[in-house]
Amino acid sequence: MDPFKILRNAVLLILFGLVVTACATKKSTTAPSKIDSQIQGDVYIGSDTVGELAKGVPDRVFFATNESILTTKSRDTLRKQAAWLRENSNVNVVVEGHADERGTREYNLALGERRANAAKDYLMTYGISADRISVISYGKERPVDPGSNPLSWSKNRRSVTVKAN
Amino acid sequence: MKKLKLLTIIILFFIIKTSNSYSLIEVDITRGNLNPLPVAVSPLFQDNKSKNEFTKELDLEDLGLEISRVIENNLKQSGLFNPLSKDAFLQKPDIAHLKPRFEDWALIKAQALITGKVSLDNQKLKVEFRLWDVLAGREMLALAFTTVPNNWRRVGHIITDKVYERLTGEKGYFDTRIIYVSEEGPKTQRIKKLAIMDQDGFNNKYLTLGNELVLTPRFNPTNQMITYLSYFRNLPRVYLLDIETGIQEVVGDFPGMTFAPRFSPDGKKIIMSFAKDGNSDIYTMDLENRIVEQITKHPSIDTSPSYSPDGKYITFNSDRSGYQQIYVMKSNGSNVKRISFGNGIYGTPVWSPRGDLIAFTKLHKGKFYIGVMRTDGKGERLLTENFYQEAPSWSPNGRVLIFYRETKTNKKGEGFSAKLWSIDLTGYNERLVETKTDASDPSWSSLLSN
Q: Given this model, what pLDDT does residue A21 score?
């Protein structure tokens, strides 16, 4: 075969490849992926792992990477928890703070504690007394989702309010 | 608990005092291990009477051969030596130990030769060994030890330490142990136990049963105490454990989580973090008078503290700049200075026992690195890159780092594992440290004998 022909064919093939991949990229940007619909601003907004503290009261809130700031949705969840706790004054709770696996173990223990306290503080501003809420941090030790991807990590960055008695 | 008593090994006498005269063999450990030194480790000779008794007592076919294998394995793992196959040896162990025929050993390209003899002396194991320079045709080192027969693996480690020291000019790290966390079960429900093993993976023992979560065990550099984090009764607190007696106690009386413990270099204090109301600061507790001191006072997370070997400084990580970075301060908490300024976040600083370097974990663009920098933060060198790895711990001579790695799981969340790895300060000789179960949080002991 003529070496020029080979070269020309190769160039054509590459060009064709570029066109195809360009189309493919376009497609994927127009249709939002599953992950995008479950994470907003690095915070998990789905309901996959969410349990209930009581009927209609979600048990957990989620955080952005390295953050302990409560989102609007988290505050809404915690207000529901506080309302239920006010009605059930005999129930004490433990707020468990967790981190994803993308950090060092010791820092994550501190981060989990910070997250649990962010939730505790918010419950307190809605009238729940400090002695009814204890906190414990598990750092990255107790992931709820074993996956190694951004969606799994977002589900693991959480604080969970559980009944202590 | 099984006793882990340190059986003292007495260096009986120098057979021949070795001089520091000029020698042909020298191993350069400051560079990579591209040309490991070829070394022949002859099986240690034993007479028939001793052999029978050792076989009876230790259930070993050939103790002399076993000890030589311990030495060979240590030398090989160091990456600096290349132990030659025993099949090629021409000279018998007993004759070689008396006076090697250097031409025979040169013929198989050995540059150093280790010979020895084991015997049973008054119910004690007596071991002699000699290190020979094959090319120069002379003895470099000769020592003898006595100990209880059960201690035979340690004899192999001590011999390796002596050989390493003679050939590299630096202390060895073979007669040491690793404390770590043994892991089993699914990623979401790991069972963790404290475990201890010899540096080469033998004599593995579990120190807790796995009923409660345990993390980050660290050796006292001066004795057989360890400090670690336990979730006993769901109260995460720093504990002290005496591995000889099995006695353990909570460190201090803190109204919240204490974590990230380490001993001071003199072994008299524990430095750790205490978390309260969402803020973690660094504290020390004196183990003699139980006095607690607060070292940092900052609304950020301050954790992973580690003392300099002279006890005058502390390195730690803090997110006071917005992200986790490494800082150095005086041991009273004054003069806090940030030292990490590279791209990414930095954590788990550990001061080298030599004092000149700080090892760390770095996270940058989704990858984890183990690296070292000078104590002023300059001269950063990344030794290894991986999906997840952290928590380096120094060998007592400051030449090797041990750390742990975790694997990335697949789409179904399967395939998780945690393993111990080691790497030379040079960035060469990266090795999996084999453990019976998955493992994490390794901490290297000091040399058990000197």
A: 43
SS percent in chain A: helix, strand, coil, step 5:
50, 20, 35
Amino acid B57: pLDDT? 87
Please provide residue A56's backbone torsions phi and psi, each rounded to the nearest 5 degrees: 80, 5
* pLDDT class of B50 with cuts at 50, 70, 90: confident
A136 touches chain B (CB under 8 A): yes
Homologous superfamily of the A34-163 domain (CATH): OmpA-like domain (3.30.1330.60)
Q: Do residues B446 and B222 make contact, with C-beta atoms less than 8 angstroms apart?
A: yes
| Measured distance CA(B281)–CA(B299) in Å, rounded | 8
CA-nearest residue of chain A to B229? A106
For chain A, the structural domain boundaries read 1-31, 34-163
Decide if B396 contacts B171 (C-beta within 8 A): yes
Two structure tokens written together for B54? 């050792």
DSSP string, B250-309: E-S--SS-EEEEEE-TTSSEEEEEEEETTEEEEEEEETTT--EEE----SS-EEEEEE-T
Q: Does A105 touch chain B (CB under 8 A)?
A: yes
What is the average pLDDT value for chain B, to the nearest integer?
A: 92
**Residue numbers in A near B406 (CB within 8 A):** 101
Spacing of C-alpha B171 from chain mean position: 13
User: Can you list the domains of chain B with their CATH numbers?
Assistant: 10-20+37-168 (3.40.50.10070), 178-444 (2.120.10.30)
ipTM computed for the complex: 0.92
The HSE-up count of residue B252 (CA atoms within 13 Å, CB side) is 26
Please give, rounded to a whole number of angstroms, the shortest distance from the CA of B9 to a CA of chain A. Answer: 38
Q: By percentage, how much of chain A surpasses pLDDT 90?
A: 77
pTM of the model: 0.90
Cβ <8 Å between A104 and B361:
yes
